[in-house]
Amino acid sequence: MELGMIGLGKMGANMAQRLVRGGHDVVGFDPKPEARALVEGFGGKSATSLEELVDKLPTPRALWMMVPAGDITAGTVEALTELLSPGDTIIDGGNSNYKHTLDRAKAVADKGLHYVDCGTSGGVWGLAEGYSMMVGGEKDAVERLRPVFETLAPGKDQGWGHVGPVGSGHFTKMVHNGIEYGLMAAYAEGLNILAKAGIGAEQHDTDAETAPLDDARYYRYDLDLADITEVWRRGSVVTSWLLDLTAEALAADPHLDAYTGNVSDSGEGRWTVHAAIDEGVPAPVLSAALYQRFSSRGRSDMADKVLSAMRAGFGGHVERTESSR
Amino acid sequence: MELGMIGLGKMGANMAQRLVRGGHDVVGFDPKPEARALVEGFGGKSATSLEELVDKLPTPRALWMMVPAGDITAGTVEALTELLSPGDTIIDGGNSNYKHTLDRAKAVADKGLHYVDCGTSGGVWGLAEGYSMMVGGEKDAVERLRPVFETLAPGKDQGWGHVGPVGSGHFTKMVHNGIEYGLMAAYAEGLNILAKAGIGAEQHDTDAETAPLDDARYYRYDLDLADITEVWRRGSVVTSWLLDLTAEALAADPHLDAYTGNVSDSGEGRWTVHAAIDEGVPAPVLSAALYQRFSSRGRSDMADKVLSAMRAGFGGHVERTESSR
Amino acid sequence: MELGMIGLGKMGANMAQRLVRGGHDVVGFDPKPEARALVEGFGGKSATSLEELVDKLPTPRALWMMVPAGDITAGTVEALTELLSPGDTIIDGGNSNYKHTLDRAKAVADKGLHYVDCGTSGGVWGLAEGYSMMVGGEKDAVERLRPVFETLAPGKDQGWGHVGPVGSGHFTKMVHNGIEYGLMAAYAEGLNILAKAGIGAEQHDTDAETAPLDDARYYRYDLDLADITEVWRRGSVVTSWLLDLTAEALAADPHLDAYTGNVSDSGEGRWTVHAAIDEGVPAPVLSAALYQRFSSRGRSDMADKVLSAMRAGFGGHVERTESSR
Amino acid sequence: MELGMIGLGKMGANMAQRLVRGGHDVVGFDPKPEARALVEGFGGKSATSLEELVDKLPTPRALWMMVPAGDITAGTVEALTELLSPGDTIIDGGNSNYKHTLDRAKAVADKGLHYVDCGTSGGVWGLAEGYSMMVGGEKDAVERLRPVFETLAPGKDQGWGHVGPVGSGHFTKMVHNGIEYGLMAAYAEGLNILAKAGIGAEQHDTDAETAPLDDARYYRYDLDLADITEVWRRGSVVTSWLLDLTAEALAADPHLDAYTGNVSDSGEGRWTVHAAIDEGVPAPVLSAALYQRFSSRGRSDMADKVLSAMRAGFGGHVERTESSR
Fold first, then answer.
1. Is the ipTM of this complex over 0.90?
2. The whole model's pTM is what?
3. All chains having 3 or more CB pairs closer than 8 angstroms to chain B
4. Nearest CB to A246: which of D97, D248, D309?
5. How far is CA A249 from CA A232, A239, B313, C163, D307, in A?
6. Would you state the torsion angle of the CA atoms of residues D103, D105, D110, D113, taken in this order, to the nearest 10 degrees?
7. Is C173 considered catalytic here?
8. Residue of chain D whose Cα is closest to the Cα of C126
């Protein structure tokens, strides 16, 4: 079918390409000429403005947004609302907050437009392997887009699903990413424990400020994380795609020296915990995973200083300047 | 090669069978006659006592223990130490605490025996798919057993590895299981958030004891967990074997009515957190996963009562008897 | 000075009484006749409607709301906005979400009204001991109310402060309560560990589903929580008012049999964690304290079932029905 | 009564002084001449060796150790075991692991010696205010020392207690310190949230790597932590001695610039979590408090790098080098 793709970055361009390969007619829009050229290069069409894009598509139109969440998505929806005709459908394939999705769907419905939210997972691997898609919206609007989902997905009926009314796609994707944070942190913590299993072989000062290591003899291992993660990839209970990626990264760079450990977070992890709290549902693992990222960026600084100040206050403890076990 | 298998339960019998299929001569020992009969049924031999088992194996012998950790493993090692000859090898394929493994290896070394620890993952699926094995021990002792590992593993050189000196196999398996706890909890928490996404559609009392739900309109989804986990299985970032199992369980029993949610823990999760603390390594996710299991078994009871008593003390708050959001 | 008190429940009536004792003229409004009679009994006046209340106060008026957060506060502010005159001041002394406070202050400013938010701590003890108050608002509006704060507070210049612009009083009180949750949970967890220190003396089954207790000989204490908390009240680092309350509760009911452990939460703990996440600040302790309350009310149920289902899936594990260590 | 004090550091010297003031005869031992001179200066006696100390005390002797936990305590107990006579009592007033205490009590009992463990809280304030003491040991041995405890405590019958058999004093003190970690972290996290409440007024980049702040208008406060903690000290639910110390530290150094935030931990926090896990009791708050300290010392480094490596693997995400929200 014919589809407009708005936003031809890393994700949008790959999705356009997978659709073109699958026989669809894609018109791509992006303000960057080189992005448009890319799409034309693999057989799509392009437009230099939203107006042109809308003009080039037959009604009822289908316009897929693949742009950053927040202001840019908001602005695009507003612009489209002015340009589109009743019966047209806007699809938000990005990582929007589902609450915004709900509000936007309500706003465009007044103009007779349909709104479909598609939580999209798969990252840079989606072009080759297909995207996992969680779709929210009215039944008819989603059904009309079925050919698109069947092409983008890993298999015709696999890896995508219509999970509920509008907003539920982004809600489900949000929780998906929250889970992803938790999975990642579980591997990260475990590997850190393996990485430091040799602490008993190191020399440590004995003083009243440092916990003595009772069982130094039990912590004298020098483990190879790349080997271990490779072993785990087959037959173990912890096999996963994230483990595959980790094993590959460790094989290429055994101590991950290329990284500083300043870990970003991009919204869904936060929103998942917000949702857990609103629902009154405990989410200690997902929260801990999120907080670890905050801490990696130094956001615990004042809390740490307060702790040191208290210790000085009640015990006269002086901070050790070097890093200690 | 020839191998004695001690303990023919769920795990031991399957491993014996996979070895026999792979051309090895296995003599199995278990106090239960039906377990021995099973092994003879698929082409192995059996012994009715440890003494007979030792007699039936050529030197240098290889004896693989697949028995519960703790007292039973300890007793078996003690008995074998009396029966075996210098140069023989004891393999502990069970879930022993690696600290015990280190202590036992030291003890049997005085008798000229070798000790190899093999952390074994794969559960009931190992017979067909192969077991993931993390092996610790001296190089020569491990190399002599290579044919056994190559048969038990998912592939000749895949899914198993010699990770370090004795104890390192169980240490690595311990952390593997700690990670497993974290992964499981990440999925569990996320699915719970999905399961309760309809809370805004429910009726709630307004009183000073209950947090009002600000945004009830955003929590009106009735999501199908079986559908969603099925979607995630292909192309998403959270694909894993644990997700496959979860999707299958939900497909068969959408609300998991067959379960009470009384979740056991069997040692490694605890030991992983003990190790993290000894190493001075933060493990908030793995700890939270462990504590969730404790809580599921009612082990937070006195803490909860203390909280209610405090609330009554400072605010005159009375406990609500019904479960609330 | 003259003050209208709206809401004569547990908190409002006590505050009115402390003000009357301090020489202020208080007119109280509450729909319940017995609440109004109470206020008249200790020397205040009363009004049977908001209209009457507003009529009885000289301009510029000061109206202190002490009503449940959420819809009731919202409705009261709306009604007052219609009734009041430019220059009058509305004080919200309740536990409103500071975001709502900011929005309300903006709305009433258009009518020339002042809005002051006062986060109030002290519970049922405030009448005798004074209330701790965190006040937000414009300087002039707060200064005009100084006589009221000085009377309500534990000391003239102690226990209250003008912490910033409107909303900052409720923001600070919110974080205060978040900290309170964390403090309470710290005591609760510690006392639970003391309460179960005799587990090594109990008989436990040995099976593959249960972690063996390595060091049973170290867990044979039968500790008296009432005695211990009483000891801690003087000279220790953990002395606090919350500890005092806990010791008193345990002295009266050593095993807290009067409580079921179904712990409510009333908003501020949730909002504190929401704020931490919005700010990108790690709050693992405050979150854990909040989640413990959710879990105490059974809100982890589906997560627990998912864990059991996974364990059945990969290991054939069957749930133990009885509660276990 | 007569008492030998072994170890005349910050704690031991102060305790000796409080005892001398209370009319007891104290003989102090410490290898440092200046420490012995100090004790003689306030009216105690001193000894230059353990031998001399033992000689100077009448039988049955009472020897109070106030030395670092671990090797030094172990060595002192061993030396005393050789020097003392049946009926003498060794008191460990330090922060020993209660498991070691149990083992040591057993060892010295064979020589007819008594062993009493005293968990001591109060820090540098104990000299003036008295020490909170949790005492474990046989009834008779503890009773004989009653005059000592009554002098050291804040009040004759207040702030100390005989909590159970040997080891229970250190066990209780261990949990006391675990709670202390939790309380400290609760304040620290809350104050960090207050400290960063102005994030909405800062300028932030908009990119796909950074979570957009939805509600920037709600985070524009510039709060004074010293003022706020001072307000909380009177009448609020969070009053405590730790809050007093915090308020004083913030009054002296409003941004705690004197501290780097490299927070030590000295054993009891770790042991408390070990105990919780052994008992199967959830301790999420106490664990989070402990982990925060580990993280403050950079011990999460490899975990953070693993997270960044995974993000690069699935999404092509590049680490941001500057610290971000």
1. yes
2. 0.95
3. A, C, D
4. D309
5. 14, 15, 54, 50, 11
6. 160
7. yes
8. D235
